[in-house]
Amino acid sequence: MDGYGKGSWIRITQEGKVMSIYKEYFSDIKKQKSTTLEEAERVSALLEKNIPTSPDKWARAKAAARAKFKVYPSAYANLWAAKKYKSMGGGWKKGKK
User: Is there a single domain that holds both residue 77 and residue 40?
Assistant: First the structure.
């Protein structure tokens, strides 16, 4: 009988083989001829990427974050850069990877 291991993305089979549910999910979606609209939207949302509407402002915000923080990239520096970019009037749009 299949069991679940650590985390929600790992599955352990009867043979003791560790499989990634994440990879299985996407391979199952690719194999199916037709998917529901809800599944298609969920998959496309995972494949989309946020793109800055004003790349020059985003570059300035990243440069300021690099100057302010010792470690870049880091979660704190990226958050600060995103807030700085938004305060400069920048925005985000969705795009493909």
Answer: no
21: containing domain: 3-48
Please check whether residues 28 and 64 belong to one and the same domain. no
What is the Cα–Cα distance from 78 to 87, expressed in whole angstroms? Answer: 14
Give the gyration radius of the chain's Cα atoms. Answer: 20
Global pTM value: 0.54
Please, which residues have CB within 8 angstroms of residue 76's CB and are 6 or more apart in sequence?
69
Distance, in Å, from the CA atom of 65 to the CA atom of 82, rounded to the nearest integer, reads 9
> Domain tally for the chain?
2
Q: Tens-of-pLDDT digits for all 97 residues of the chain?
A: 444 444 445 555 666 555 555 555 666 655 655 556 677 677 767 777 889 999 999 999 999 999 999 998 899 999 999 999 999 999 999 876 5
